[in-house]
Specification:
The protein contains 6 helices and 17 strands. It is of the alpha+beta class and about 290 residues long. Strand 5 and strand 6 form a beta hairpin. The structure holds fe (ii) ion.
Length: about 290
């Protein structure tokens, strides 16, 4: 027998977090070439588990982070062009130390609400990917809820009512003007775009399942309701979707790559951390389909 022991290649392992949501991946190095079978395995795991966390990628360069994102589809630009990684226009930055043009915290975490991304666009992202560069000692998780399982758990008459509803989406709804980031508010007030109409319940293009899908802060109204009624109604829906059995709060380690299937979930950033500590995430968006 040879005295030289071959180091075994790490084995890719996908471990489910709970019944309705979440899985953790270990044993993969995204700095190395990923074969087609592994890529499909990871992609399918996102769709099946709604959110996937790939651990142990702290050694990646921004170019390698982007290449990892591209394994999951065509990257699209973040519509907020103010906070980007230098030289990488497809990677935006979520940073609690970032300031807006008036010198205040750019993304005020305590204003965070449950949402899915960029609903004011015709083709919103299918996946949001978050890569942890710096994380606080405690708190600052990203929470994700399965809005497909939540929809399936509703009474039939409520399901039927929801299926017929349509949302009008803008950059920021008038209900949020008072607490909005002033730069984004200016963009909205200067915008000539008509609201983007989407179904409140969308059908997943890959699994054929239905999920509740909205961004409360970007919904000006549900057609047939006033803006005030809309905010109240979406809050009631949020309460149904964010029951603990449908949710997973991912506590980051540096080098985690979180991948969220935006077509069947809502997510929310955690503000419950010491704001003198740095929370810095890179964000990439993968182009999706027009919701139907
Ligand atoms: Fe988001």
């Amino acid at each position: 027998m040879s005295a030289v022991m071959q180091e075994a290649a790490p084995k890719l392992t996908i471990t489910k977090v709970k019944e309705h949501i979440g899985a953790i991946v270990t044993g993969v190095d995204l700095a190395k070439p990923i074969d087609a079978a592994t890529r499909k395995q990871l992609y399918d795991a996102v769709v099946e588990n709604v959110v996937l966390a790939i651990r142990g990628q702290a050694h990646l360069t921004p170019a390698q982070v982007q290449a990892a994102g591209e394994l999951f589809g065509e990257l699209m630009e973040d519509q907020n062009r103010r906070y980007l990684v230098d030289g990488f226009p497809m990677i935006s930055v979520l940073d609690n130390f970032q300031k807006d043009s008036q010198g205040n915290q750019a993304k005020v975490g305590k204003n965070a609400t449950w949402h899915t991304d960029h609903t004011n666009q015709e083709r919103p992202p299918k996946f949001t990917m978050l890569y942890a560069v710096a994380v606080p000692d405690k708190g600052g998780a990203t929470s994700v809820c399965n809005s497909r399982a939540a929809f399936e758990g509703l009474a039939d008459d409520l399901k039927q009512k929801l299926v017929g509803m349509k949302t009008e989406n803008t950059l920021i709804s008038s209900a949020r003007f008072k607490i909005a980031n002033p730069d984004i508010l200016r963009d909205q007030l200067e915008s000539k775009n008509p609201p983007m109409v989407h179904p409140l319940v969308r059908t997943h293009p890959e699994s054929g399942t239905k999920a509740i899908w909205f961004h409360k802060s970007k919904t000006e109204r549900i057609i047939g309701m006033t803006p005030e009624e809309t905010q109240e109604f979406l809050q009631q829906l949020t309460d149904m979707i964010t029951q603990p059995q449908y949710c997973y709060a991912h506590q980051y380690q540096p080098g985690d790559l979180l991948i969220i299937d935006d077509r069947q979930s809502l997510h929310k950033a955690g503000h419950d951390f010491d704001q003198s500590q740095h929370r810095l995430l890179y964000r990439m968006l993968v182009r999706g389909e027009r919701p139907v």
